[in-house]
Design goal:
The chain is α/β, with parallel strands linked by helices and about 240 residues long. It has a single domain, classed as P-loop containing nucleotide triphosphate hydrolases (Rossmann fold, 3-Layer(aba) Sandwich), CATH 3.40.50.300. The protein is built from eight helices and 13 strands. The protein has a nine-stranded mixed β-sheet, sandwiched between helices. The chain has a two-stranded antiparallel ribbon with strand order 1-2. Strand 10 and strand 11 form a beta hairpin. The two termini are about 35 Å apart.
Length: about 240
Amino acid sequence: MKITTGSKDFDEFLEGGYEIDVITTLYGPGASGKTNLCLIAVAEQAARGKKIIYMDTEGGFSIERLNQLTAGNINPLMKNIFLLKATTFSEQRQAFSKLIEIVKKTKDLGLIVIDSLVMLYRLDLGESVTEGDNLKAKMLNNSLSIQMRILNEICRKREIPIIITDQVYSEFLSKEDFEAGKEKKVAMVGGDIIKYWSKCIIELKNLGEGKRIATIKKHRSLPEKNLAFYINDEGLTKEKKFKIF
């Protein structure tokens, strides 16, 4: 019921890999490793002869990185990857229609990646808040919910693992909390919509000097735990001596 993440260390961390019938969300700030984890999984599934749908909304899809991960063998594997691109949230909705068509027609579909699901939504939502357009904000939230529901139906009925990436923002501090010296909390963009539909949620942080940390925040069978790791040409390796405190 799981697929390999493409990394022995990350497989061990998740006790087998990504579950095939759930949505896995990777969230964190820029340069925390979200896209790299996606590409590592893509390279592995493509090498196994599986088909992959990759929706790119941030321009992070890199053939050069995939070539590194496959030891220079990406060209013959590209036929296994359906790449969908979107530069506006409207285009993202259209890309979802194409995604559904591909799912219906494609055999041996081993993975779907949406990187990221929320960036274009976040831009439109910011405009609606600035303009005071509550109706537009409601429509955007409804559209995001529909996209998550579509993904949930695909992974549950067809048992296709789905990875989405999400961004973060700092929550607003009240004057009282600021004066009390409380730190701003980091929250996921999309909030409860993403949390509700995702059965596995992993937070990623960049600790500097090439070191990252992954923390399981939600899982059907695993407790909250951490993995410190480095990203390298071959994928990633864990930091064996890392301590949080």
